[in-house]
Design goal:
The protein is α/β, with parallel strands linked by helices and 285 residues long. The chain is built from 8 helices and 11 strands. The strands form 3 sheets. It has a 7-stranded mixed beta sheet with strand order 5-4-3-6-9-7-10, sandwiched between helices. Strands 1-2 form a two-stranded antiparallel sheet. The protein has a two-stranded parallel sheet with strand order 8-11. Helix 7 packs parallel to helix 8.
Length: 285
């Protein structure tokens, strides 16, 4: 399916649609994203969740109505996570996680996706689904991988301790030095990519280090990366399973393991600024 992006102004519409609140009639399989933006590729959103029933209402209320599907990967929850998800999004695809860890959950969710674009979103309420349009804009604009960054210009975080910020900075610098990347953030779970990218990065880890592994392997594969400024909010309910020291060591082990691999020449320079909001862009091919 084409990733060609056509402005809504070019679509057929009836005379009655003029004026405020006009209704646009889109041709074929194009999905209206904003009043001036439509896309063809179906978008899947993957949400790994374990005992997140209280947070899911905050997660689902910001998800755009135009997405193709929501894939919830349930990590053997003992609360009403699955029930709440089905009430909030009746068409949600629920996949049972058989292994353990965030990496395992994401790999399971990715395999269940039918969309051409995959967006990964945490279930703790820390991510704003309204930002998905910026990720999708980057991909249809030419990127292979749209990487969220809390430290790019325009991003931010309300949920990182000084120790975690320092650790993220050190590990990010190490990845940039060893693999020729120019990342401003490393350990962040809000990313999007074309599904075909999975064949190039062959994910094989189970824990929180999965984001780092993805970021390293897209660079080694020579894929085009676009950083997207993103704001991370504080987890709303419950406690995170992340442990700074333990998971930081796992990230470090991934970096040391991957550095022995051959780094492919990137097809284009890594671009740090985010693509402009979709509503302000014109036609892109």
């Amino acid at each position: 399916m084409s990733s060609f992006l056509r402005p809504a102004a070019d679509q057929d519409r009836s005379p009655e649609s003029a004026g405020a609140g006009r209704a646009l009639e889109f041709v074929g399989q194009y999905r209206p994203v904003t009043a001036q933006f439509a896309i063809a590729p179906p978008v899947s959103v993957v949400i790994p969740a374990m005992n997140e029933a209280e947070n899911l209402p905050y997660v689902f209320k910001t998800l755009p109505a135009w997405i193709h599907e929501v894939v919830l990967v349930d990590g053997n929850s003992t609360d009403d996570t699955v029930k709440v998800a089905r009430e909030l999004w009746p068409s949600v695809k629920v996949v049972e996680q058989r292994g353990k860890g965030k990496g395992d959950a994401l790999i399971t969710g990715f395999a269940a996706c039918t969309g051409e674009i995959i967006v990964m979103v945490d279930a703790d309420g820390s991510a704003d689904g309204n930002e998905i349009v910026s990720y999708v804009s980057a991909l249809v604009g030419g990127a292979d991988f749209a990487k969220g960054s809390r430290f790019a210009n325009g991003g931010g975080t309300d949920d990182m301790t000084v120790i975690r910020k320092l650790g993220n900075r050190v590990l990010c610098s190490l990845v940039n030095h060893k693999f020729g990347a120019r990342y401003t953030d490393l350990c962040y779970g809000y990313n999007a990519f074309w599904k075909r990218v999975l064949a190039d990065i062959a994910l094989d880890c189970a824990g929180f280090e999965v984001e780092t592994l993805m970021n390293i392997r897209v660079v080694k594969a020579g894929l085009r990366v676009q950083e997207i400024p993103s704001h991370e909010f504080v987890r709303i309910h419950g406690a995170s399973n992340l442990r700074a020291v333990r998971d930081g060591m796992r990230v470090l082990r991934v970096i040391l393991r991957e550095r022995g691999g051959r780094t492919a020449r990137r097809r284009t320079a890594h671009r740090q600024p985010a693509i402009a909001p979709a509503a302000s862009r014109g036609e892109v091919s």
